[in-house]
Amino acid sequence: MTAPEPLRRCSLDLTAVDALLGGGVPRGRISELLGPQSSGKTSLLLALLAAITRRGEVAACVDLADALHPESVADAGADLHHLLWVRPRAVTDGLRCTELLLQAGGFAAVVFDLGTPLPRPLRIHVWPRLLRAAEQSHTALIVLAPHRVAGSFATLSLGLRPRAPSWRRGAWPLFEGLVTEVVVERSKLGGSAAKSIKLKAKSSGFDLSTLHFELD
C-alpha cells in the first residue's frame, strides 16, 4: 500500500504564526483569512506573499476588492516579478479567474480577496470546484472575507480580531501599530495546541503601508 503524500505547506516565515498552523498554510486546500477592515488580514497576507516570493515561487492575487497596493507589497519584502495581480470587475469573473489560475498550476498560492462587505452571497457549489482544482495543482487557495464563506470546504479558517492600538510615549504620542489576535476558528489539520496568538502590527511613524507582524 502506497503511503499518503505528506501535506505541503506555505510558510509565512513568522515563527509564531507558522507554529500555530503546524508549519504554514496548507497547499492543495482552501484556507480563509477572516475579519473586518483594519483587522490585520492584509498585513498577514503581505507577510505570506513576501515569504512565497522570497523563496522564488510564484503567487497570484485575484483582487475583487481592488485593495492591493503594489508599493505596500514591495515594502513588505515581496518580489513583484513573482506576483500576478488580477482585478476582475464582478464576482463571477473573479471566481472564473481563480479557477483558471488553479487549473493552470505553477502557483504556490492563489489569493481570492472578496472584500468587505461581500458584494453578494456566493453559491455553495463554487467551493467544491475550487477545492478540486486546488488539490489537483497542489496550490494553496486563500480566501479573504469578513466572515466564513467556504463552509466545510475550508480546511483552515483564521479569524483576525483587532484588540487595541499601541502608542509610543512622549510629548507627542505617535501611533505605533495595532495588537491583533489570530484565532483558529476551524482546522482539519494537526498543529499547535494553542488556538490563538496575539501579534503586534507595527508601523514607522504614520506610514501604515509598512505594517508587519511581531510577537507581542
Mean pLDDT: 85
Strand order of the largest sheet: 5-4-6-7-3-8-9-10-11
How many strands?
11
CATH class call: Alpha Beta
Whole-number radius of gyration?
A: 17 Å
**CATH superfamily membership, which one?**
P-loop containing nucleotide triphosphate hydrolases
Residues in helix, %: 10-25%
What is the count of helical runs? Answer: 5
Task: Compute the separation of the termini in Å.
Answer: 46 Å
Globally, the shape reads globular
Most strands sheet: 9 strands, mixed
β-sheet strand percentage: 35-45%
User: Topology as H/E string?
Assistant: EHEEHEHEHEHEEEEE
What is the domain total for the residues? Answer: 1
CATH architecture: 3-Layer(aba) Sandwich
Low-confidence stretches: 204-211
By CATH, the topology is Rossmann fold
SS-based structural class? Answer: alpha/beta
Overview of the molecule:
The protein is of the alpha/beta class. The chain is globular. The longest helix has 14 residues, at 41-54. A nine-stranded mixed β-sheet has the order 5-4-6-7-3-8-9-10-11, sandwiched between helices. It has helices at residues 15-21, 41-54, 70-75, 91-104, 126-137; strands at 9-10, 25-26, 30-34, 59-63, 83-86, 109-113, 140-145, 154-168, 174-187, 196-204, 207-215. Helix 4 (91-104) packs parallel to helix 5. It contains five helices and eleven strands, in the order βαββαβαβαβαβββββ. It has a single domain (9-215), classed as 3-Layer(aba) Sandwich (Rossmann fold), CATH 3.40.50.300.
